[in-house]
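Example 4.3 (complexes with small molecules)
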Amino acid sequence: MAVPGLQLADLSIGQVFPNFSSQTSEQSSEPPAEKTHEIGKCREWRFEVAFGSTVEVKLLRGTAEIFGTELPTGHKFTFTGCKSAIFTWEGCTLSVTGNPTVEYTSEETPMTSYSNLHFALEKLRAIAGDFPVAQGPRVMIIGPEDAGKTSLIKILTAYAVRQGRKPCVVNLDPKEGMLSLPGTLTATSFSTIMDVEEGYGSSPTSGPSPVPVKLPLVYYYGLESPEGNERLYRALVSRMALAVSSRLSEEDANRTSGCIIDTSGFISQTTGYDLIQHIVAEFSVDVLVVLGSERLYSDMARRFEDRQGTVTVVKLAKSGGCVDRDEAFMRTARETAIREYFFGEPKRTLSPYTLTVGLNEVNLWRVGEANSIGASVLPIGIEDTQALLERTTPTSLLQHSVAAVLHSEPGDSVEVMAESSVMGFVYIASVDEQKHYMKILAPVPGRLPPKPLVVSSFPEPTASLVG
Ligand SMILES: Nc1ncnc2c1ncn2[C@@H]1O[C@H](COP(=O)(O)OP(=O)(O)OP(=O)(O)O)[C@@H](O)[C@H]1O
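Answer. The structure with adenosine-5'-triphosphate bound is encoded below.
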């Protein structure tokens, strides 16, 4: 696991991967006790596992699913750094090895209403199948932070895939990446099962995986909130909508399956509501699901009143299992996502390549952040002039940041560059301003392609990759 040039050769694998050390120490001490849980019909076993510890779960009898994806009987799944639930429609027996920080069985779940929503969407898909140009439902889920939007999207996607559909899942929440790093917006066509340990699954950069890899289309946004650079966010939403609509017209299975859109929990009544309206218009959303907020539901019902017949606003209850994730948990999750992009995870390790690049060779840009005034609060007639991207020079301040390599040419305009998809990411390991070079980690060997690199403040720099 030595990475040339980064003095990692002398480090033990435990220093590079804290998770490895915890596993090793668990293995060397007393093996954790195995417990058996009997879960009754329509109940769910909720559990939380801290980063650095692991819990193994095996389905012994019956049927069970994690956010819609069925668990096979007898297969051991390992969980770390997660808050999750195993639901059963018919009752099941689970074997659990390890110590979850929280675990309990709940009788009250909103799964019946979630599955009703799925069957309603299936009806719309069937209707779309009867007409040669009609599209399946374009569903968008909105709600406050930690309301369970992403979990509901996983459930709807998994159920659709189980019925042979190929829904296009769009993540417009930059806080968490879907099959990519945080700070990105992605769209992926799902036709195969999700990886219950990994969340959505793995992409081609994750290395060999027993679950078929997904191919995400990724755009770089680089900020946590859509309101951080509203102009860039809107431009990326429009670009993504075009890509998704061309994907939906490619194949009948994609067209009839439609798309499911995840959104950010940051929703202010000023710019947030306008952004929702922008997404609805760009993606031609026809089903707007409001999760866990009466007030947001009533505001949306009023806003889309005059579009009855084209946009249906649906209210759903939040699951009692949804947990608020504090900043420390989210920060560790972001660090883990970055580390896994370059180094893989304990089951599938990857070795990134170290490249030395002259500071004058890089075409470096930064996401515009200075003007945080949203367009909707600007006086009428004044255009939102917030920069999409700004030219920048590599300095030591960029050390330990991730940079996106764009599918764009050096001579492209800023507008074209900002809306270009992401080729991959590099990690800026060190910058030597005196000697005019920097060391970067890249997932592939060879020279850094002569493409624009973009950096930003989110996800924040993380030193844990280089010890
Ligand atoms: N039924 C459940 N039981 C246990 N944990 C759950 C359940 N539903 C969701 N969670 C957990 O609660 C947390 C928040 O859920 P989720 O990510 O779906 O919310 P969200 O609305 O998408 O959040 P955000 O707005 O921050 O993106 C996640 O860690 C998720 O795994």
